[in-house]
Amino acid sequence: MHYDVIIVGAGPAGSSLAIHLARQGRRCALLDGATFPRTKVCGEGIMPHGLAALRRLGVEPRGAPFGGLRYVLGDGTQAEGCFPNGLIGLGIERAWLDGELVRRAAAELQVDLRLGTWVREVELPRDAGQRVVVHLGEEVLTCEVLVGADGGRSRIRRLAGLDAPTPARLRFGVGAHVCHAPRFDPKVEVCLGEGFEVYTTPVSPTLTCLALLTDRAGLAPFQGDLEGGLRRALGA
Predict the structure, then answer these.
(1) How many C-beta atoms surround the C-beta of residue 198 within 10 A?
(2) What do you get for the CA distance between the two ends of the chain, in Å?
(3) Can you give the pTM of this predicted structure?
(4) Are strands 68-73 and 187-193 parallel, antiparallel or unpaired?
(5) For residue range 81-105, what is the model confidence (pLDDT) as tens digits?
(6) Which residues are 72's β-sheet partners?
(7) Number of neighbouring beta carbons within 10 Å of residue 29
């Protein structure tokens, strides 16, 4: 099978690109080893420009609006700001967003969506005029352009020999959703601690996303008691 473009990774970047290319008449294969909808650690906040980009794709996102960000230090010091000109962002559950974009990509006649499909090997062209060759086990696909949209630790980048050195400071992410009584907070809050950050993003009046980003040293307050550690970090 030959395509104009093969995109590996069907998250928001890969699915959005597939939709754009298909609407320009390009034949695309959109591949991902996962199945959708899926759970994925994410801050779940879409900034105003990202929200506008989704709407240009025809997606009308559902979620909770926010008008800016608030940063909070461990000693209670705060700094906050609002988006200019009345712009808003939106807290959106990642599973819904992934699923909606994949669904819309699958509806495009020019997109061949393949989920649960892992790329085993990549052969890059050595001379002008040659095609990229992608091996999916026994099946072989070719394309003019290969896109690795499979995240910061991209396997495609590594298979293509383009991997960058791994940062010495590894970071870890943990995510959760918290149900609560109806309330509205017009800002995403970022709590900064020693070696870690906790993001709280409203995704509905009764649901908030908590996302913890930490280095190895910052894991100590959360080990053995993640819920308690999050409560202490948030001052709850």
Answers:
(1) 21
(2) 55
(3) 0.87
(4) parallel
(5) 999 998 999 999 999 999 999 999 9
(6) 78, 191
(7) 24
